[in-house]
Amino acid sequence: MFLLTAVPGALVFLILFGLVEKSRGVFAVKSIAGVLFGTAWHPLRGEFGLLPFLLGTLWVTLAAMLIAGPVSLLTAVYLSEYAPRKVRETAKPVVDLLAGIPSVVYGVWGVLMVVPLVRAAAPFFGATSSGYSVLAGAIVLAIMVFPTIIHVALEVFAAVPQALRDASLALGATKWETVKHVVLRKGRPGIIAAVVLGLSRAFGETMAVLMVVGNVARIPRSLFDSAYPLPALIANNYGEMMSIPLYDSALMLAALVLFAIVFVFNIGARAVLVRAERKAE
Amino acid sequence: MIESHISIRDLSVSIGAQQVLKNVSLDIPDRKITVIIGPSGCGKTTLLRALNRLLDSVEAARIEGTILVDGEDIYDPKTEVTHIRKKMGLLSQKPQVLPMSIFDNIAYGPRIHGVRDKKRLRKIVEKELRAAGLWDEVKSRLGEPASRLSVGQQQRLCLARGLAVGPEIILGDEPTSALDPLSSRIVETRLAELKADYTVIVVTHILRQARRIADYIAFLYLGELVEHGPAADVFANPRDPRTRAYLTGEIS
Amino acid sequence: MGFRRRKTEEAVFRVLMGGATAVVAGSLLLILGTVVVKGLPALDLAMITQTPKGGYYLGKEGGILNAIVGSLALAGGATLLALVLSLPVVLYLNIFRRRDSRFAVLTRFALDVLWGVPSIVYGAFGFILMVFLGLRASLLAGIIAVSLLELPIMARAMDEVVRLVPGALKDASYSLGATKLETAFKVIVRQTLPGIVTAVLIAFGRGIGDAASVIFTAGFTDRVPTSLLEPAATLPLAIFYQLGTPVPEVQRRAYASAAVLTLLVLAISLAARFLGRKLTKNTIR
Q: What is the CATH number of the domain that holds A119?
């Protein structure tokens, strides 16, 4: 049994090792910095700059979190502190249901509803857009992240004892003041954890975003531009991968970058959480 | 004629399917200590929570009857509940310190009600910490998280915090039950001294405590107000057999 | 004065909260609604019992049986494999090791990392393994890739339940003379069975719905899979590939696949909830 338990750790190393091995090829042609910060992506000419994809991933994920964070937390506060118990109890399974819907189905919906919406809305912001854009990706991604943050936040709020809220109310505070100064403060480490979890989920997404984001290898200059996140790059080019020299290495490198980001992020998140917990004594 | 600060008339409370209080009518005298006694589950805590409308948080609670504080009906739909609660300070059984520093705990109430001036806040904090008998122990560490205090200190902090909003009435829900004997004594003494300026209502199951501090006694049994009157009278000559049984320890 | 400001602030936030909740609820309704409106009309007996005909999945006739069976087989195999790998890990971590031992902390960290890895990376790694093992795009390769994806999800869900088993229960078992191994299986598993079943179902739901991990590894075909070494069609890829074509009959299959997949996943969610409650018979509260 001990051997089996070593599997997760071993797996992390194996994946790391495998991806590093397979991406070696690219470094024969360019340096790490050249690839990571290169802006030209022309595989047929042997140019493999990943910067547009890195930025594309960043834009979409960040935009998604900017939507998902506030909306999820507001919803969680409403459900936990203001909604009648019946509403809360029906809402919880519904939220979890949202979490189970597969990525491709979100993608289908995104293509059918979100893309046309963005296309129609762009002129109001002084832009033209095919609809396949960072914004479309962010909207779809945000909706996918809602259940994650809401679920954890609800648990966090439920863990705050009612007696603590009563103490604040007894001093003449309004319900909202109690939420602001007591519930949210007491739950701060948990809320951070919820958002971090949501961010992880957002980052790990591939299909839904791929289907609505446009997949154009340029650095996006606005929300209405198309983008090409790293996961989409890898998924889209599987077919041509083997026929162009070094293409497979470059894609494996892209996968390696994704893996590295998750790894570093986890270390960082853990550090932040430990500190937040220590502060909220 | 005893002035009554709070008038409870025909108060009936049911929580879900259970009737917790049945037609309770009671006058709480001004600036005296009224102690509500009775076996566990008799409705004492519910009565207390009806007074500062904390029952509002309990979804399944249904309240009938009237409670007048200074002549105002506190359950009137037009009354502002935070205004009512500001008049009362609550001390719970388990000390509930807010997740902030000692200073901020005490300053929380005044800040909510509009006091922004730092000097004024500092004065209030010091005044109430002294009134609660905690000042000397914490004066050098007001910025520390309140959770670091011992349970006894936390309860005194809660008392100071409750006093800081300038209430007229202090409500104590088994305020010393969770404390060690020494802290218990300190809190109890403080409460007894407070009656000079505040109306104090304490719920307790510790009969000896009631004997020590009560001016006025109300005995609740199974949701009914069985007997009430000046403490000396009720303890010496209980009129109802149930009261007698409780006082002698037959029912608890 | 100051009081009105307090009330206004609360009112503003109440509106914001209501709006946010409406957005969340509305999104769910829109998504499910779209699936129903587009997908249900496309579902008929022929659709789910036939395989696509007339050309490499772009033909106009036939149904999605290939993808339905393929997905079930692939996700089923992957979930089984993930279960075999993750249950011992979780039991070991909670019984044989102390919570704060270095090994436990590192393993849980590894599981956290694996949880956050995008499924496309599992697809890429699966591809590397596939080539290394000399496999071609096949049901087996897909099973391996998806099991890797499901492992951290299943392990985390199981860990959350097994962790909650009170120490007193374990102690009671030990004091009766049971070994750690016996305790693990006879007592802990029984107590946490609802949670374990839920974890398995959650992972299955995730695995069956994932496209990125199978896009490299499972291939695609219009036949129902008959061997582990053949490529297999999956519902997510069926949706993805067929949605993009301009042929309406093929698009119809995409919507039907979406409906089937969503219904499957919803059914699994409900089953997880229902079974979870039913199996709580033997647990101690």
A: 1.10.3720.10
Mean pLDDT of C251-255: 86
From C14, C18, C209, residue closest to A103, measured CB to CB: C209
Segments forming the whole domain that contains residue A175: 2-279
> How confident is the model at residue C5, as a pLDDT?
86
What is the ipTM, given to two decimal places?
Answer: 0.90
CA of A279 vs chain B CAs: smallest distance (Å)? 9
Beta-carbon contacts of residue C198 (< 8 Å; ≥ 6 apart): C157, C161, C272, C273, C275, C276
Q: Tell me the percentage of chain C whose pLDDT exceeds 70.
A: 90
Cα atoms found within 13 Å of the Cα of residue C279, Cβ hemisphere only: 16
CA dihedral A144, A150, A152, A153 (to 10 degrees): 150
CA-nearest of B173, B171, B154 to B92 is: B173
Cβ distance C269 to A97 less than 8 Å, yes or no, reads: yes
Q: Is C2 on the interface with B (CB under 8 A)?
A: yes
Tens digits of residue pLDDT in A106-150: 999 999 999 999 999 888 888 888 889 999 999 999 999 999 999
pTM for the complete prediction?
Answer: 0.89
Any B CB within 8 A of A177 CB: yes
What pLDDT does residue A280 have?
A: 60
Instruction: Give me the helix-helix angle, B118-131 and B151-164, nearest 10°.
Output: 130
CA B29 to chain centre: 14
- As a CATH number, domain C46-282 is 1.10.3720.10
